[in-house]
Amino acid sequence: MLLSNTMKGAEMFSCSGCSNKWGGLAQAHCAGCHNLFSGVTAFDRHRSKGKCLDPATMTNTEGEKVLELRTNGAADVWAFPTDVDFNERFGRS
Ligand SMILES: [Zn+2]
Ligand SMILES: [Zn+2]
Q1: Which ligand is nearest to the CA of 21?
Q2: 69: CA distance to ligand 1 center in Å?
Q3: What whole-number distance in Å separates Cα of residue 17 and Cα of residue 31?
Q4: Buried-most residue among 21, 27, 60, 86 (CB within 10 A)?
């Protein structure tokens, strides 16, 4: 179910099941719930017992949000709040 791509390039990828678009920088799109993640680690966090969790409601043991919604310029991307490289990797300043 994981559509992932680690190639660099200006090429944009899209999903046949939704309108999400993402560039070739290791973003991971879930073909199950159609959320876009900043990488495989973030993707893995929303999968639990073979099901998709809603990234908007995922919290850690302290009750803090695990992922926050950012944008890659073309679509919304769920990323870790600690992901300081996000803008660099996704080409946004
Ligand atoms: Zn999913
Ligand atoms: Zn999709």
Answers
A1: 2
A2: 15
A3: 7
A4: 27
The tens place of each residue's pLDDT in the chain, 93 residues long, gives 555 544 444 577 888 999 988 875 568 999 999 999 999 999 999 999 999 999 999 999 999 999 999 988 878 899 999 988 888 877 654
Q: How far apart, in whole angstroms, are the C-alpha atoms of residue 59 and residue 64?
A: 5
How far is the centre of ligand 1, averaged over its atoms, from the C-alpha of 35 (Å)? Answer: 6
| pTM over 0.90, yes/no | no
Q: Which domain holds residue 6?
A: 2-89
- Distance (Å, whole) CA 7 – CA 79: 19
Distances (CA, A) of 92 to 14, 23, 66: 19, 12, 22
For 88, the 3-state DSSP assignment is helix
Q: How many domains does the chain have?
A: 1
Centre of ligand 1 to C-alpha 17, Å, is: 13
